[in-house]
Amino acid sequence: MRTEAIDPPGVAWLRVSPKYVTVRVVGWALANVIAVVVLSLPLVLVLNGAWAWPPLWLAAAVPAAAFLLALWRLLLIPRQVRSIGYAEREDDLLIRRGIFFQRVLVVPYGRMQYVDIGAGPVERGLGLCTLKLHTASAGTSAEIPGLPAAEGARLREQLSARGEARLAGL
Asked: How far is 82 from 119, CA to CA, in rounded Å?
């Protein structure tokens, strides 16, 4: 189901690179391997006889549930990446994300203070970057992850130029 609030008519959304799925999967793997290992420690201690509590079924159920939840999150990653998009309009930048809880962030060019680009080791290896927009509002978390490096550099320059032009007009 689409609404005009999330999908304004006439907006052509640009998507992030499909390589960003790899970045997200690497992050998922690191976090979930650690979580499942930590949650499995009581099971190992119960099986070795070092602990009498919790019961075996509970000690096995907790890491199993965490593992199933992790697999569900893994299946969602490609769809989450496909849901990220951005659109440059005449006076503002739209950033869209979300599957179940969709969100569209509108950042007027005149409100931008500076544009920042960052890349972690996995992003650098894949030729990707994350563009972050900083405004006067501390609550604004405007970022576009998974951009190809060349597109990130182009967008940084374009947004900086548009922001300066809008500020000069005030």
From this structure: 20
Three-state secondary-structure class, residue 153: helix
The whole-number pLDDT of residue 169 equals 56
3-class DSSP state of 6: coil
Number of H helices, E strands in the chain: 4, 7
What is the distance between the alpha carbons of residues 88 and 95, in angstroms, rounded to a whole number?
9
Residue 153 CA: distances (Å) to CA of 16, 22, 31, 125, 160: 14, 21, 30, 17, 11
Q: Which two tokens stand for residue 147?
A: 């951009």
- C-alpha 122/C-alpha 61 separation (Å) is 33
- The predicted-structure confidence for 42-75, as pLDDT tens digits, reads as follows 999 999 999 999 999 999 999 999 999 999 999 9
CB atoms within 10 A of CB 80: 16
